[in-house]
Amino acid sequence: MPSFDDLRQAKAHGFTLTTLMVQAYLREHGPTPVGLIARACELSIRSVERSIAVLKEKVGLPSRETTKMSHDHADHGSNQEGTASTVAVNPVVAKLLAFEVLPWCADMLAAKVDPAVLERQLAFHEHRLKSGFPFKGHPARYLFRACLNDYQPPADFYAQPQRPTSAPRREAVAPVATPQTEMTRDGAITTIRMGMRSKLPHMRAEAQRLAERWQIDLKTFAC
Known about the structure:
The chain is mainly α. The protein is built from eleven helices and no strands. The two termini are 39 Å apart.
């Protein structure tokens, strides 16, 4: 439990319960990716980021106390004993969270998609980020769809001097592929079903967009 001095300081700074939860988690677990904090505290990534910003401003949170989703997984404390990433989280799920995929989406992908597909798509996604791929929305939403539908690799992926170890080895020349693969109808139905069950506005908007595109009646997905 927080001490009296902690609570008095929190009142003085106007901390919310969310901010107090994030502060307590960081004190207990140390450096942890924002996605893992959100998962553990049952908060949105945006709420965790806002809380961290408040803590840095009000109490001088050290820069190494947490990370804001850089894509170097070595910086997320994944090798530190006792952190959530080594105790309770599947390594593939941890990577998805590090790329800002929502916790419940990461869990769903881990349950429904082959691990080799997830590793492959994570390698492709990291390459897209480094090469300046023009995402139309949030990169995490693209990664979610890519994992769900097993998108083809970026056109220049196999032209790299060194391929990521998680990507499949190819002895032939690079296949001809477009940067973005069209979603299948089955993939659209799965995304619509999850979107209609979600309380997040952007997920429901995505479900409605796909339903219009594929001419699918949303009434069949009513909860």
